[in-house]
Every structure is written in structure tokens, then in C-alpha cells.
């Protein structure tokens, strides 16, 4: 079964930037790859997704204009560039792959998940 491994998390001050990476250890069939996040005491929420066949992106309103999702097919790697970070972006960030049909960021539609990487933004 395919495996996803995230990296790049860390601690930054508000206004700073981080770039997360997600490496797939082998080919994973999917229509979308996505980044989710989960803050303490909150449900997991979708942040950004990328349509695997054509690379078209989708973003949650909360990160639109600040985050960029991208991929490097040669490296089997998905990225999330996060700029202008805010304290409310603090969460564990997860990479996922799947075949969403009704909601692009429906967690139930993604069947491959990484273990997550912690992002902490201080004010």
C-alpha cells in the first residue's frame, strides 16, 4: 500500500513562511492529493487540494492567497508553500490522496494519509 511522509513543519512567528513536503514512497492512484490540518480540540479540515490529472488547485477560504499547493511529479512530491502565517494556522498538517466525488476536501473521500507534521505559529 502506498505511503505518504510529510516534512517541513516547525515553529515560526506570525507573518513567516514554511514549506511542507509530502513524499509518496510509491505510486498512489488518486484523482486528488490534498493537505489537511487539525488543531487541538478541533476537527480535521481541508486546506488545499490538487487535481492529480491536470494540477488544478483548490483552496479553503481561510488560506486563499497565502498558501500554494504544488507538485513535482519527478520527485513524487506534493508541496504546500505557506506564507503570511497566522497563529490560527497552528495545527498538525496531513497529506492525503484519494478520489473525492462530492466534496474536494471531504476527509472521508481520502484513503491514503501521512502521519502529519506540526506547524506552530506564534504571535
Describe this structure in words.
This protein is mainly beta. 0% of the residues lie in helices and 50% in strands. It has no helices and 11 strands. Strands 2, 4, 5, 6, 9, 10 and 11 form a 7-stranded mixed sheet that branches. The chain is globular and about 40 Å long.
Q: Could you give the count of β-strands? A: 11
The coarse overall form would be globular
The helicity comes to under 10%
How far apart, in Å, are the first and last alpha carbons? 40 Å
Structural class: mainly beta
Mean pLDDT: 94
Secondary-structure element order, N to C: EEEEEEEEEEE
Beta-strand percent range: over 45%
Describe the secondary-structure layout.
Elements: E1 4-7, E2 10-13, E3 18-24, E4 32-38, E5 45-51, E6 57-59, E7 67-72, E8 77-82, E9 91-98, E10 110-113, E11 117-122
Parallel strand pairs: 2-11
Antiparallel strand pairs: 1-3, 3-8, 4-5, 4-9, 5-6, 7-8, 9-10, 9-11
Key structural traits:
mainly beta, globular, 7-stranded mixed beta sheet, 11 strands, 123 residues
Brief rundown of the structure:
The chain has strands at residues 4-7, 10-13, 18-24, 32-38, 45-51, 57-59, 67-72, 77-82, 91-98, 110-113, 117-122. The chain has 123 residues and is mostly beta strands. The strands form two sheets. Strands 2, 4, 5, 6, 9, 10 and 11 form a seven-stranded mixed sheet that branches. Strands 1-3-8-7 form a four-stranded antiparallel sheet, with no helix packed on it.
Amino acid at each position: 500500500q502506498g505511503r505518504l511522509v510529510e516534512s517541513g513543519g516547525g515553529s515560526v512567528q506570525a507573518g513567516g513562511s514554511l514549506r511542507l513536503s509530502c513524499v509518496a514512497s510509491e505510486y498512489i492512484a488518486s484523482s486528488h492529493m490534498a493537505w489537511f490540518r487539525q488543531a487541538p480540540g478541533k476537527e480535521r479540515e481541508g486546506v488545499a487540494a490538487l487535481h492529480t490529472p491536470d494540477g488544478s488547485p483548490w483552496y479553503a477560504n481561510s488560506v486563499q492567497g497565502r498558501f500554494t499547493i504544488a507538485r513535482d511529479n519527478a520527485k513524487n512530491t506534493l508541496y504546500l508553500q505557506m506564507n503570511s502565517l497566522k497563529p490560527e494556522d497552528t495545527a498538525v498538517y496531513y497529506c492525503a490522496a484519494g478520489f473525492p466525488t462530492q466534496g474536494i476536501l471531504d476527509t472521508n473521500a481520502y484513503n491514503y494519509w501521512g502521519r502529519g507534521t506540526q506547524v506552530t505559529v506564534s504571535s
